Amino acid sequence: MKKIYLDNAATAPILLPVIWEMQKVLYGFGNPSSLHKSGRDAKKLVANARRQVAKLIGTQPDEIVFTSGGTESNGSVIFNFRNQKIIISAIEHPSIMEPVRRLDETLIAPVNKSGRVNLSAFKKLLDEKPALVSIMLANNETGAIQDVKKIATLAHAAGALVHTDATQAAGKVPIDARELNVDFLTISAHKIGGPKGVGALYIKKGLALEPMLLGGHQENNRRAGTENVASIVGFGLAADISRKSLRATARKMTTLRDKLKSGIIAAIPDVTVNGDPNNSLPHILNVSFAGAEGESILLRLDRLGIEVSTGSACASRDIMPSHVLMAMGADAELAHGSIRFSLGVDTTAEDINKVLKKLPPIVENLRNLSTIGKKYGRK
Amino acid sequence: MAENNSDWLYSDEVKDHFFHPRNVLFEDESTFPHNARGMAGNVICGDQMLMLLKIKDDIIKDIKWKTYGCASAIASTSMLSEVAKGMNIADAFNITPQEVAEKLGGLPPNKKHCSVLGDEALRSAINGYLSENGRRNYEVK
Lengths: 379, 141
What we know:
The complex is a heterodimer of chains A (379) and B (141). Chain A folds into two domains: 4-12 and 246-371, Aspartate Aminotransferase, domain 1 (Alpha-Beta Complex), CATH 3.90.1150; 16-244, Aspartate Aminotransferase, domain 2, CATH 3.40.640. Chain A is 41% helix and 13% strand. Chain A has helices at residues 16-27, 37-56, 70-80, 94-101, 119-126, 148-157, 177-180, 218-221, 229-244, 246-267, 294-303, 323-327, 332-336, 349-369; strands spanning 4-5, 64-67, 86-89, 106-109, 132-134, 161-165, 184-188, 199-203, 271-274, 284-289, 306-307, 338-342. In chain A, α6 (148-157) links the parallel β5 (132-134) and β6. Helices cover 39% and strands 19% of the residues of chain B. Chain B is built from five helices and three strands; from the N terminus they run αβββαααα.
């Protein structure tokens, strides 16, 4: 059975050229800090990857710090503002939500029904004179793209620095950190066809963050520890490939995503599309199926080789469903019945057709055995 | 969760009951003649169970259910319905969530509440039946 992987927002398959390149590097063994030839060779590889990653997000190479991934990049920014006021949005990733939960002075900017930050409410929060604003470039559950440029302009005018988590947006929409006018920006390799366990943090020239890891001068004294050379090289190549193919990939994904969306709406009654259709990443579709629970839909699809994800409560220890959908004012029932489809560079029209064939009977069956399903499913 | 050899999130028993639920009612509840009805849980929390029983001479002659919820919620209700069918109502009332979970080969810790809700719905159906017949309700041992 050919697997149909529609969970690329969780992680995307590693690109073959990335594997080959990393394999070559793994045979090398130099420590980039060493002065001899082996060390210098490794150092060159890291420098090249830094240029490739910088180019993906429109920054200078020396503004890039390699980290272990998005979580570390996000966490190290929040860590630096731990004794100050921070504004975040209500739909941030847990790697922002959890660290700020430990802080006293966090202000949460609400979002509207389509999952975009409510700018007038955000402006009011700025009266509190925060030191940092951290709002994601695009949401990982709904794909809703935020107006980070405007948010950054407002925040700067109020004297705050600005961080954006661009983990989900990278490689899907063009990113220019200068144009966005942000001070810090997070990206991760494994969402763009690179390896897991490596990411980067953009720190605008002239700004400094206190490192979380100490004990070495690596990354220009901004993050200690011997560089993960092979993964960094893989990250660089994935950044390069995804930058060059961005337009074509985004166009293709948008077409297929819209085909999936209209197909689901046509075949299944009582569905709600979550997010902002006019400001959305090209690869994410989040749909709620009234009367059918998300995890059950996911596992029934999984048996047929179709892999998707859910933000529903049953997937976690939390009793409440997706904080993102709840922040958008969704009904708890609809939030429990939500499925995220996220397309990848390899997704085909045939894959989408198969999903459109297999999904409707699953939803119908679950609605029929559900206590609340009988009011749904009839057109 | 108990270790199992399945490559699945849940045990093979949960998987089996989730994909092939027993005694489930797909149609409207009016299509199944019953004289006891119990409901537990709520949609806000993501799980809701309905138990319908056909009781004669204090024996559960037939049982049907509906569940809104995740795989372990569906599997727990299905397993419970198999265990309770044919039982005396006094014995069925005392089936514990642990028994159901054990028969399912264990449930992950965050899914234990799923097996509790099915039991609640069954007990509520039985006590409802007793009340309707002017009899004293059972109490949980």
